[in-house]
Amino acid sequence: LTFLGLESSCDDTAAAVVRADGTVLASVVAGQTALHAPFGGVVPEIAARAHAEKLDTCVEEALAEAGLRLSDLDGIAVTSGPGLIGGVMSGVMCARGLAAGTGLPLVGVNHLAGHALTPRLTDGLAFPYLMLLVSGGHCQFLLVRGPDSFSRLGGTIDDAPGEAFDKAAKLLGLPQPGGPSVEAEAAKGNPKAFRFPRPLLDRPGCDLSFSGLKTALLRARDTEIAGHGGLYRQTRADLCAGFQQAIADVLAEKTRRALAVYLDTAPEQPALAVAGGVAANTAIRTALERLCAAQGVRFTAPPLRLCTDNAAMIAWAGIERFRLGIATEADLIARPRWPLDATAPAMLGSGK
Ligand code: ATP
Ligand code: FE
After folding, report:
1. 309 a known binding residue?
2. pLDDT tens digit string along 70-122?
């Protein structure tokens, strides 16, 4: 079984060819960073146009890289939500066109399901496993029970950690993306020099919050600047170290709680998978690895290129859905919002 995958829900246009045995034959990602840079954020209209323009060349490139033709494929999978609706529609239309032209089966995939199923592609994890998705736009714990069965155990009630890192970098005059630059500064700092809050730890459950950390950082920075007429290099490193440690601590504690819920289901081969750009952070990763080691839980993290937005995960999720025969026509409606959680079923076409 070989699938073509398409992804265009945010600011990356991507196409990939993946085989059911987990071989990624090609994975092409065309970013749009330069297009959006002058506006300080992703502009939906510009993104949609760029996707519409780039999708077919990405498909051609992916097929060429895989050394295959459309007629060699067994199906097409496309992200049909959630995301910026213009981009999602570009992808769905492109995929519909390809399917109509070739007669191949077409499978709509939830972008988050793509992220959540990636550890099956990369590490062959068995269901059920616990997934922590931590990126620039997401932070949630998912109990992954099957290709179409997810329970959300908790998530951020405000910012995602990646977003927090990015804002922190902005506040401290460090380059974007903020995660890597804050991490590099933190390596030179003392995490105990400043006291940062540990939001929501006093409350039960797996929900997280990061916006208070950003406010605490802003206050600490301003106090320093007011007191010294500027920010010392060492102070900046200390602030980064304290900020990063707070995020790592909160993530570790909430993960411990999510693991407890997960382990209660008595999984045969307990595993935690992390995905998303923030999983690249060594302090965070180490904290999670330690936690897993202590609980006898396998820890996996897909390689970064398969953690950040890509189409290989969409092709793979398409294969998984197709194999189980759970792909439905309704999945092909472009949806700006599409919660994964079984307890929050998607409302078709209502934009909710
Ligand atoms: P999403 O895919 O969820 O919509 P996204 O595309 O912004 O969001 P990713 O591409 O998965 O997310 O990850 C990018 C984020 O990861 C950025 O916010 C970036 O700062 C963060 N990040 C990258 N490297 C690190 C690191 N070493 N430490 C902390 N954060 C990091
Ligand atoms: Fe994503």
Report:
1. yes
2. 999 999 999 999 999 999 999 999 999 999 999 999 999 999 999 999 999 99
How far CA 15 is from CA of 57, 265, 300, in Å, comes to: 9, 36, 25
Structure confidence by residue, pLDDT tens digits, 239-287: 999 999 999 999 999 999 999 999 999 999 999 999 988 988 999 999 9
- DSSP codes, 235-292: HHHHHHHHHHHHHHHHHHHHHHHHHHHHHTT--SS-EEEEESGGGG-HHHHHHHHHHH
SS3 176: coil
ipTM beyond cut 0.95: yes
CB of 183 within 6 A of ligand 1: the answer is yes
| Ligand nearest the Cα atom of residue 275 | 1
Rounded to 10°, the helix 211-228/233-263 angle is 160
- In angstroms, the CA 153 to CA 173 distance is 35
Is residue 266 classed exposed, middle or buried when 0-12, 13-18 and 19+ CB atoms within 10 A define those classes?
exposed
Distance 72 CA to ligand 1 centre (A): 35
Rounded CA gap, 78 and 93, in Å? 10
For the Cβ of 309 lying below 6 angstroms from any atom of ligand 1, the answer is: yes
Tokens of 91: 């992808």
10 lines ligand 1 (CB under 6 A): yes
